[in-house]
Amino acid sequence: MPGSARISFNSVDSSLSSLKNCQSYINTGMEIATHVALDLVESFNDVEDVNSMENVMLEYAAMDRELNHYMTAIEETVNQIKREKPENIPDLKYLVNEKFTALESKNTDSDLQKNEKYIYFKDQVKEMRKQCK
Q1: What is the per-residue pLDDT for 131?
Q2: pTM of the model
Q3: Residues 60 and 26 sit within 8 Å (Cβ to Cβ)
Q4: Which residue range forms the structural domain that includes residue 86?
C-alpha cells in the first residue's frame, strides 16, 4: 500500500519460538528438582535439603511466570499492531515493556504456589515422606 509502513514480524516470530523452547528447559529443571527432592526424602529424609529443592521449584515457577508474561506481552503487542496497521512504525520495545510491566505488577508470591508443577512437587514429596516413615 502506498504511504503506509509495512512491518515484518518474522524476526519477532522467530524470537518467540526460541522463548517457547526455553519453557521446555524450565520444565526439565522442575522435573529434575522434583526427582532430586524425592531421592533426598527416600535416602536421607533431610528436611533442610528438601526445603532447598522446594525453593528451587519456586524459583523455576517464577521464571516460568515471567517468561509467560513476556511472551504474552509480545504476542498481544504484535496482534494489536497487526489489527491497527499504524501508519508509522511504533516503538515495539516500549509497547512490549509496557504490557510486560502491567502483567508483572499483578504478581503475588501465592501465584507461584499455584504453579501446576510446584503443586505436583509438593504432592510427590508428601507421598514419598509417607512411604519412608
Answers
A1: 87
A2: 0.85
A3: yes
A4: 9-132
